[in-house]
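tool_call: predict_structure(chain=1)
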Amino acid sequence: MITSIAHATIYVLNQDEALDFYKNKLGFEVGDDMKVEGGFRWLTVYPKSNSQLQLVLAEPKEGPMFNKEAAEKIRSLITEGAFGAGVFETENCQQTYEELVAKGVEFIQPPTEQLYGVEAMGLDNSGNWFSLVQR
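tool_result:
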């Protein structure tokens, strides 16, 4: 029986730049940062208050997971904003939104009342959208 989700993958254009964004803009902690067989870099981050679900910041590269053509297609889709980085919860969406805007994070939707709470929509530095939600 599966009991939880430990990791979710976000495809990014550059792992070093993504690490800087998630760590220094969003305030995430670094989980793992290691080179594994075949030159693959296993890089994870998580919010300070919850290390149970870590985000894998992965570059789509030619290798065991993707052929060259597939890796190029995924990179193209990232730049078109076709992927999401997830839903990040906050206790105060307006305050967190203002803090992130001050750090230079781009938002495509300011905090807005929704049926499920207050939500703002931002972009990471690869072009992945993320939702910032206060329930």
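agent: The two ends are 30 Å apart (CA to CA). Proceeding to next step.
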